[in-house]
Specification:
The protein starts with 5 loop residues before the first strand and ends with a strand. By secondary structure, the protein is α/β, with parallel strands linked by helices. It contains ten helices and 14 strands. Helix 3 packs parallel to helix 4. The radius of gyration is 19 Å and the shape is globular.
Amino acid sequence: MQNLNYVLFTDTDTDVTPQVAAEYGYHLISMPYTLNEKEIFPYVDFDVFDSHNFYETLRKGAKPYTSGLSPKDYVNYFEPFFKDGKNVLYVHFSAAMSGTFNALAVAEKELKEKYPDRMIYKLDTKGITILSYNIAREVGDMYLQGKTVDEILRWAKTEVDKFAIYFFANDLSFFRRSGRVKALAAVMGNLLGIRPVIYMGSDGMMTSVDKARGLNATIDKIIGYVKNLQDDIVNHRVIVGHSDSPEIAELVKDRLKREFGDDLNVETVTVNPTAGCHCGPDGVGVCFHAIHR
């Protein structure tokens, strides 16, 4: 890799773990959540995410919530690299989903006054969890290939909207409390067993677009979206994400390989705890390269 004049950042809402971050040289911004009245910063307050214990706590009735960072937090993350003469490329979760990016804007202004020659370049994945993860992986590949910031941002102008995610949530109470899914009200109040199929559009927001009764029918719906929208899927990563539902994730993975071949590049990822506060346990989804979202 050539000597690039920038460093990579991402946040824990993208499902990037310290192990994956180390593959590319990403620096991780920890996005906090509060559980049982304790604020927790992923990979700061713990080294390894104990996903089963976390989601089991939610199943037992815990009601977690999330919060943003302060401008000072962002300054503390970026300033050491500015002092070292480096710019920052921050690959982040959807700016439309959180007020934390208002704090980032304040931090940017403060840093620009102190370091007028330095830049924070932002790449909005317009997603969260495995959608952001898939894009962060692709950006990381380009970084290791020595691509410049301009080359990556040009790629992002068209390619970010070509990564699609479709998923279902088993317990709608978490999404109901968070209010982060548009059109979810159309599903609420239905008989037990109805699951909404949710996607993330180019506006960076989650929307309920379909529904099915029963697990197998819901998986059929999601596989159908993949088949109808996929674009050059065999030459890109396919990410299956789950919130402590490894068996269902494996079923989805097997279905994908039956549809597209055993050599399909499928990776299984556990949804990070901060996002898990909103989706709850027992959800599964797929992110893939598509003709559009």
